[in-house]
Design a protein that fits this description.
Chain A: It is found in: Cell membrane; Membrane. Chain A: One of its GO terms (biological process) is transmembrane transport. Chain A: It is a multi-pass membrane protein. The complex is a heterodimer of chains A (284) and B (259). With 284 residues, chain A is an all-alpha fold. Chain A has one domain: ABC transporter involved in vitamin B12 uptake, BtuC (Orthogonal Bundle), CATH 1.10.3470.10. In chain A, helix 2 packs antiparallel against helix 9. Chain B is 22% helix and 23% strand. The radius of gyration of chain B is 18 Å and the shape is globular. Chain B starts with 6 loop residues before the first strand and ends in a 19-residue tail after the last strand. Classes of the chains: A mainly alpha (284), B alpha/beta (259). Chains A and B meet through helix 2, helix 7, helix 8 and helix 11 of A and helix 2 of B. The structure holds adenosine-5'-triphosphate and magnesium ion. Adenosine-5'-triphosphate binds next to strand 2 and helix 1 of chain B.
């Protein structure tokens, strides 16, 4: 471990892993609450077009991804609010459009290999200046969650009651969509666009096996996120694996453990009162 | 603070997906009223409630909350809303307490954490629906009637001046309907206002000061006392009972409207 810390790229990668581990599940908790688990995937696909545009125009692919995925998130939100089906068809259409657009644009530019690194991540290529951008974005995401958490909770729980409470529901809906887009861009260098969404959703799914409340779920998901991101990264370095998929495999393993652990504790909780009744009956 | 009646709708029309769901509703809800909105399934009761709150746009006519159009209304902390839901909802577990506490959002500042007063009101709301001992349980794991009571508590926690409830007693047992009736009686005594939709008024019946009956998006009956079964309940029987304050609302036994 100390050896690893002596490598500069590894220090950067570890900081990024912690930032992703904190932000992705925090935003993911609201997204799961809102039953939009595939939103991150949709945004990830759209971000590809942004990267393609960034590469083609010779500007920054990260900037391209940020702008295009934020726009895509707004479009998804508008379609969701307008359509009665909840917009899953709209999401699917944007998925395919984003993916096809991204691949076409990068091929025009001739950058097939760099596309690979965005699809599956390449954390070792992150520079110090990338790190500053990622840290600033992550701080913004966490501040938004802290500041608007109460309102976002009600919005994602019951949009109509949120409106009847005078909350700016349209603004908050856009805020959560854009925050998700920013989170995708934060995580894309390390995890890759195709797997970003896993770190938004899987830690939340794991946490809710063990928790009873919303706040507890979010905090536990963030703990799981950080632990999986760091251990996945270190493990991938030790065994010479790709970091993104390694991190996702660790979160999936945690999820499986949580399902088993949750089932066991629930069974015990159910059995406890029954045993008490039996004891009381025996005493009577 | 705005003055005026809690709700005034004149000539309210609502179209949903091209269908005329409300066809010219005139309704005034005065402070201290306990108004029951009655009518068969699909008659437009929920739509009327949502239009009063500005949740569906009007295709014609106008509606005001405390004298202000919904789009310009700012005192949302005065309004509590219990929507017609089967369950609490949400894809992540939330404790009963978390859901109830979210009813205070209109009274809280983004920049401050919850205060002691906030917590005290949440405690009161939980006690009012008799769910204090379930406060730490996930709301989604409660029974249907219990979840309905969580939604009522969420609205109560915001200390609303006017409480709007869409079928609050659906799935709630008689004992808990009586508890709700006692809570609502206390609110109205405090000078607050209640608008509720119900199919079975049950223990709430003696509290109702006015009622309107909807059918096909129109008010087919309005007044005190509510229409007895028989002639008044027939479709096409369209008159308004005179309001006479001296007349105590007569208790009613059965309520099968539009059947
Ligand atoms: N979102 C919607 N889009 C289109 N039509 C709708 C929508 N919501 C309600 N309607 C229609 O409006 C009419 C009135 O519906 P509403 O929900 O107001 O009835 P209700 O009186 O509350 O019935 P219930 O007793 O079943 O709750 C129904 O015919 C319904 O089909
Ligand atoms: Mg209804």
């Amino acid at each position: 471990m100390t050896e690893l810390l002596q490598l500069e790229f590894m220090r950067i990668a570890l900081v990024i892993a912690v930032l992703i581990g904190l932000t992705a599940p925090a935003v993911g908790t609201f997204i799961v609450q809102r039953r939009l688990a595939l939103l991150g995937d949709g945004i990830g696909h759209i971000a590809l077009t942004g990267i393609g545009l960034g590469l083609l125009t010779g500007t920054s692919p990260v900037l391209g991804a940020l702008v295009v995925s934020a726009l895509g998130a707004v479009v998804i939100e508008v379609l969701r609010a307008r359509s009665r089906t909840g917009g899953d068809v709209a999401l699917a259409i944007l998925f395919y459009g984003g993916l096809a657009g991204g691949v076409l644009l990068t091929n025009m530019q001739g950058g097939g290999t760099s596309m690979q690194s965005y699809l599956f991540g390449s954390i070792s290529s992150v520079t110090v200046s990338d790190l500053y951008v990622i840290a600033a974005l992550a701080a913004a995401v966490l501040v938004i969650v802290l500041l608007f958490g109460r309102e976002l909770f009600l919005l994602c729980q019951d949009e109509e009651v949120a409106r009847a409470s005078g909350l700016p529901t349209r603004f908050l809906s856009l805020l959560i969509a854009i925050t998700a887009a920013v989170t995708v861009v934060i995580a894309m260098r390390a995890i890759g666009l195709l797997l970003v969404s896993a770190l938004m959703i899987v830690p939340v799914a794991a946490a809710q096996q063990l928790t009873r409340g919303f706040r507890a779920t979010m905090l536990l998901a963030m703990v799981i996120g950080v632990l999986s991101a760091v251990s996945g990264l270190v493990g991938s370095f030790e065994y010479d694996l790709t970091p993104g998929p390694s991190i996702v495999m660790v979160t999936l393993a945690v999820f499986v453990l949580a399902v088993v652990g949750g089932a066991l504790t629930r069974r015990r909780a159910h059995r406890a009162p029954a045993e008490k009744v039996e004891v009381e009956a025996a005493q009577a | 603070m705005t003055t005026g009646d809690p709700f005034t709708m004149t000539g309210g029309r609502v179209r949903l997906e091209g269908r005329e769901v409300l066809r010219g509703i005139d309704l005034r809800v005065a402070t201290g009223d306990m108004l029951a909105v009655l009518g068969p399934n699909g008659s437009g009761k929920s739509t009327l409630i949502r239009a009063l709150l500005g949740l569906v746009p009007l295709a014609g006519g106008r509606t005001e909350i405390y004298g202000v159009r919904p789009a310009r209304f700012r005192d949302w902390h005065r309004v509590g809303y219990v929507p017609q839901r089967l369950t609490v909802g949400g894809g992540v577990p939330a404790t009963v307490r978390e859901v109830v506490a979210s009813g205070r959002v209109a009274r809280q500042s983004r920049w401050r954490p919850s205060s002691r007063a906030d917590r005290a009101w949440v405690d009161r709301a939980l006690a009012a629906v008799d769910l204090t001992d379930r406060a730490r349980d996930p709301a989604q794991e409660l029974s249907g009637g219990q979840q309905q009571r969580v939604l009522i508590a969420r609205a109560l926690a915001g200390e609303p001046d006017v409480l709007v409830m869409d079928e609050p007693t659906a799935g709630v047992d008689t004992g808990n309907q009586e508890t709700l009736a006692a809570t609502l009686a206390g609110l109205v005594e405090d000078g607050r206002t209640v608008v509720l939709v119900a199919h079975e008024l049950g223990p709430l019946e003696p509290l109702i000061t006015r009622s309107v009956v909807l059918e096909h998006g129109r008010v087919v009956h309005e007044g005190t006392p509510p229409p007895p079964e028989g002639e008044c309940a027939k479709p096409g029987h369209d008159h308004v009972h005179p309001h006479e304050a001296a007349d105590p609302p007569a208790p009613l036994r059965s309520w099968s409207i539009g059947a």
